[in-house]
Amino acid sequence: MPSDDENEIRALIERWAAAVHAGDLPGVLADHAEDIVMFDVPPPDRGVRGLDAYRETWPPFFRWQAGGSSFDIDELSVTVGGDVAFAYALLRCGTPEDLRADPERRLRLTLGLRRDSRRWVVTHEHHSFPLSGADPG
């Protein structure tokens, strides 16, 4: 049975994903630490650091998504240990054409969280897609 913390974090992530899907920037930023570090699919390769830099990454994604793209949680796991937690998820993220061409492709999401003044905040966010057709060796 999930703990209260696990349920709280799951709800936080589901709210965040719904805000991303809706293009709701204040909702996307809610529950993120001022010192967040994010590694994303598009550049910069060294990631972004701080809430202001994180904020700047979203408008281009919202413009792309406005063309009918999906951003839906398919699978979510949360692990809590004291005042820190991590979660990982798979999301359906792509245009209808992308998802028809490769219906099993998922965006991989990993989040690190910490308890901050009795609430959970996201301190690390990592998004990635698997390389398609890459030679592993």
Automatic annotation (TrEMBL):
Entries under Gene3D superfamilies matching the protein: 3.10.450.50
Domain named SnoaL-like: residues: 9-131
Coiled coil location: none
Domain of life: Bacteria
SUPFAM superfamilies with a match to the protein in the record: NTF2-like
Protein name: SgcJ/EcaC family oxidoreductase
